[in-house]
Amino acid sequence: xxxxxxxxxxxxxxxxxxxxxxxxxxxxxxxxxxxxxxxxxxxxxxxxxxxxxxxxxxxxxxxxxxxxxxxxxxxxxxxxxxxxxxxxxxxxxxxxxxxxxxxxxxxxxxxxxxxxxxxxxxxxxxxxxxxxxxxxxxxxxxxxxxxxxxxxxxxxxxxxxxxxxxxxxxxxxxxxxxxxxxxxxxxxxxxxxxxx
Length: 196
Ligand SMILES: [Ca+2]
Ligand SMILES: [Ca+2]
What we know:
- There is one protein chain.
- The C terminus is likely disordered.
- The protein is built from four helices and eight strands; from the N terminus they run H-E-E-H-E-H-E-E-E-E-E-H.
- A hairpin with a 2-residue loop joins strand 4 and strand 5.
- The chain is an alpha+beta fold.
- It has two domains: about 130 residues, Mannose-Binding Protein A, subunit A (Mannose-Binding Protein A, Chain A); about 35 residues, no CATH class.
- Strands 1, 2, 3, 4, 5, 6, 7 and 8 form an eight-stranded mixed sheet that branches.
- The site of one calcium ion has 8 residues, from strand 7.
């Protein structure tokens, strides 16, 4: 009898472990903190160059921050100032490494849609400023192009779930459902090129 109870216990433990994995993904945000409407990891442990900062964020399955709106910029600026980081430089995902003067986000591969440059920036000083950091000018953080090999701290942005797969019939946090939707869309698109 004791063995049956033990087996039952193991089965139930397995069920609960599985159900825990599949639920409440959205509340499991550690070590990211909510700043404004999104989650970020502001890493002020070690200064590093832009390339290292991008890699650090990847180790957290995240990306260097792409600041997309004035609200996002203001929320980050307020957080950094009020938490005693007003004297530090922080890396963002922006760079014009590919084509001089064309600032792109390393995180999403697209042109930067928002910028809050400080006065006279971007100036590509010394023909050597291709990475975008934020720095504090008069108690508000602004953007500046800066040498990619310069030093700063990473701000990593937690990835948001993609909404492009038609999630109306999918429960949140079930990757297989998203993959199924993606494949459906892909196959529909592929059919367009099938002329036979
Ligand atoms: Ca540049
Ligand atoms: Ca500059």
